[in-house]
Amino acid sequence: MAGEVARGVPSHVSDDLGAIEIALDHDELRERMSGNLCRCGAQNGIVDAIAEVYAGSGT
Amino acid sequence: VIELAYTRATDAADAIRSAQDEHAKYLGGGTNLVDLMRETVETPSALVDVTGLSAAIEETDGGGLMIGAAARNTAVAEHPVVRARYPMLTRAIVAGASAQIRNMATVAGNLLQRTRCTYFYDTDGSRCNKRSPGDGCDAIEGFNRVHAILGASPACVATHPSDMCVALAALDAVVHVRSTSGERAIPLCDLHTLPGDRPDVETVLRPGELITAVQLPASAIAAHSTYRKVRDRSSYAFALVSVAVALELDGNTITDVRLALGGVAPKPWRAWRAEEALRGRSATETSFLDAAEAELADARPLAGNAFKVDLARRTIAAVLQQLTEGARR
């Protein structure tokens, strides 16, 4: 998922299809994690955990 | 254990040669066919893997786009030309399935995926004319909330599940196919057939015919387009109703429009009547609702899905309004 964000792949909740940089806010995270293995990938705790790791990853 | 032959095609000619057996199937990403095989809905004698065939996405001389049949759904959605010139196609693709499925699923596979009607999958407990022609349909008197309101028949009320195909229908995409007897090109709108009394037949493809590419014609109107999907969950669910629209305005007059519907019919539903009703009219809510009414005049809802008629009407009007407001900004 992080790779797709870095590549600028738009998601269902991306407003601007022309955007090269995607701000990985919680709406984007939920949409991109939904269906990733299963629907529980978009639960609150998991979304927070991904946001924390992603913020610390330096990307 | 299911016994079957598996071969990986090196090119289109090799694929066609390998799929001569009438029970052979071409395999793309396998996101639908493998599920159907697990459920024994599909029981092919041989799988010919065509994921090694052309996945190229190339601009054509006329200003359109040629998309290799093996291109993954994600590759199409993220392509800069698709995003800029055919935004409804990117929107439709990213509204479908999940990221993992979109990364596996091919363009040709998306076209040929089969309905998600639960009776079709229920090989042990349900009658289905699509699965076993002549057996009857348990959906018509059953749980039919997600089924078709347009184009269905007394034999079958299943819907075509694709989001991508709805955009392709609105964009006048052309499907290139090849067989031992040569090549031909089929408008996407003519690829899928209505069920009539043969719901097991879903396309005009001949036995062994291989989809090699999908072509998007050059289209000025397509740059001003979008796709909206209404579903039970906001993500990872099939459409109850979806709408693809491209709109061209001169002042407040609709000079041209493309409109297609998903989730309501056995095939991606090009809304020719709505388009006809819109051309030359002013871009007002009354015009939008009139056009939707024209398209839905022949709707035949079932006990469980009458809500779809009003939902389709309102969604068509809302997306037309959204594009009208976008054009004024």
A few lines on this structure:
Chain A is mostly helical and 59 residues long.
Summarize the biggest pleated sheet of chain A: none
SSE succession of chain B: EHEHEEEHHHHHHHEEHEEEEEHHH
Q: What is the mean predicted local confidence, pLDDT of chain A? A: 88
Sheet of most strands of chain B: 5 strands, antiparallel
Radius of gyration over C-alpha positions of chain A, nearest whole angstrom: 11 Å
Instruction: Kindly report the average pLDDT value of chain B.
Output: 97
> Which oligomeric state applies?
heterodimer
β-strand percent of chain B reads 15-25%
Low-confidence stretches of chain B: none
What is the helix content of chain A? 40-55%
Q: Count the E strands of chain A.
A: 0
Note the overall shape of chain B: globular
Q: How many helical elements of chain A?
A: 3
Strand order of the largest sheet of chain B: 4-5-8-6-7
The share of residues in helices of chain B is: 25-40%
What's the helix count of chain B?
Answer: 13
Structural class of chain A: mainly alpha
Largest interface, with counts of residues having CB < 8 Å to the other chain, equals:
A-B, 20 and 19 residues
